[in-house]
Amino acid sequence: MSCLNPLHQRLSPLAQGELGREHALELLAHVEVCANCARDLDLYADLVTVAASPLTRPVDRLERWRARAPKFLFVIVVGFALLGVIDQVLGPTKKPDYAALAERVEPPATDPNVVDPYASELAAALADAPREDWASVVVKLDAFLDLHPDHALARFHRASAQRALGRFDAARVDLRLLREATQGPLRDDAEWALVHLELAADEPRAALGVLDDIERRNGAYAGRAIELAERVRAVR
Ligand SMILES: [Zn+2]
After folding, report:
1. Do 84 and 65 sit in the same domain of this protein?
2. 21 CA distance to ligand 1 centroid (A)?
3. How many domains are there within the chain?
4. Whole domain around residue 19: which residue ranges?
5. Phi and psi dihedrals of 44, rounded to 5?
6. Ligand 1 centre and the CA of 27: distance in Å?
7. pTM score
8. CA of 4 to the centre of ligand 1 (A)
9. What single string gives the DSSP state of each residue in 151-186?
10. How many CB atoms are located within 10 Å of the residue 41 CB?
């Protein structure tokens, strides 16, 4: 039989982490003295484990306790696990956040020393696109690159727009191509942009691979690459 206390209704929200701390503590005080609610909290804890929520780990750790510890102790420990207290003490379950290290790398300005017969065509394509409307920027650059597939700067702009749209794979294809097909400052910029793209896409290994390359070639970003690689490795 279920407990008739209205607090019983809050067991499910507690197990799903939807209950505020104050309400949770009030409920746990009741669970300590109510066998029915203790049993139901036990069931909810199982459901939470099955659902593989972030609570899984602390609840898993408690399995060993469950067999041995007195019921009230189990209730307290599960309660605090659901509140996230145990997890804070034993270490966070949150994934390391590599994306926080990623910066937006803008395509470089046109180099005045480089003669580019399509510069005004590219500028027109970009200017026609509504500001910050990355989807139409991509459409314009698709058309431009169909005509001028070797135009590295246009490819860089497209990668940048794809990244802004969250299309990391498409952006990577363009930047990897630039690494292979270009030389000089634009290649350096493309590699540096690729590093930040890999971080934004939560691919630290790929980012470190590119950073190693930058360091080895001792290009324009070598110093910053060493520093950033250290910061990536420090994320845990
Ligand atoms: Zn109760």
Report:
1. yes
2. 18
3. 2
4. 6-90
5. -60, -40
6. 9
7. 0.59
8. 7
9. -HHHHHHHHHHHHHTT-HHHHHHHHHHHHHH--HHH
10. 24
